[in-house]
Amino acid sequence: MLPxxxxxxxxxxxxxxxxxxxxxxxxxxxxxxxxxxxRAQLPYTDYHKLPIAExxxxxxxxxxxxxxxxxxYLRFLRxxxxxxxxxxxxxxxxxxxxxxxxxxxxxxxLEAGFASAFDLIVPVPLHPRKLAKRGYNQSDSFAEGLATSxxxxxxxxxxxxxxxxxxxTRKNRLQRWQNVAAxxxxxxxxxxxxxxVLVVDDVLTTGATLEACAAALLAAGAFEVSIxxxxxxxx
Length: 235
Description:
Elements: H1 4-15, H2 36-41, H3 56-59, E1 67-75, H4 81-91, H5 95-111, E2 120-123, H6 128-134, H7 138-150, E3 153-154, E4 159-161, H8 173-180, E5 184-186, E6 196-204, H9 208-219, E7 224-232
Parallel strand pairs: 1-7, 2-3, 2-6, 6-7
Antiparallel strand pairs: 4-5
Helix pairs in contact: 4-5, 5-7
């Protein structure tokens, strides 16, 4: 006989079915927000397993900023599971997507030797006006999930946007850089001084936003800066 909590869980699942946020199929017992099939078929990058010199994501920052580690959990493919998951996270209020993916990725980073690689995790901030409109910052949940698995501190307000910027979606690389250059600042330099900071975002396309954040952190005295995203788009 099933224990009472499991019986109640199954009963409520019949009335309020839980569905996978990747494919919308019903979730089975023990599955959390993303079904086993989706998890198996997600397009993982495995960049964290590569030497820095062979990491194609790291190469995007060469000659621009001294980024220590360049990490991304998944490949962003249009109209695929990853895009659907990110849409759920960013526009449908499903912050658990970020937390779950952050915990999964953090566990993989632990196994790959990143247990003590970072002192602080910092999410890319939204402008207060955009934050008020959306109600949350989608990068916060990913930062929280990573911090949980890595046993690392995270600070949602370590960076702030000093001006409102247009959406990056339809801009080319130069326009993206111009759109975000000099719009980030560190709120408390003592909080990042001498620390190895991992700055995180949901998606990396050109990298302009992360470059701007990394530049602000280094200027404020961070010892080194790394970047991590849920997904990255191929060039």
